[in-house]
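User: Predict the structure for this protein chain, please.
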Amino acid sequence: MESLKKKIYSAVDIPKETFLNIPLATIVGNEEIVIENYKAVLDYKPDTIRINTKIGHVKISGKNMNIKYIRKDEIFITGIIKNIQYGS
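Assistant: Here is the predicted structure, written as structure tokens:
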């Protein structure tokens, strides 16, 4: 089913993250990150925030990490971002 979605995606002009529901991270400098299409917040500490996504976990590390807002399909994180890791 997933390969069929990818074939259809390549034939239409729709953003990949929207069509396949995969995460999209927008990073502004080292102080802001917005992650769209996330599933859940797994861990929330001042130095680490872990997010679950369809393709695995995203770990954002730094100082004074804060979730500025959470919406159904988007999370906005602020702080001094030092590291972003993707994994399962």
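The chain is about 15% helix and 60% strand.
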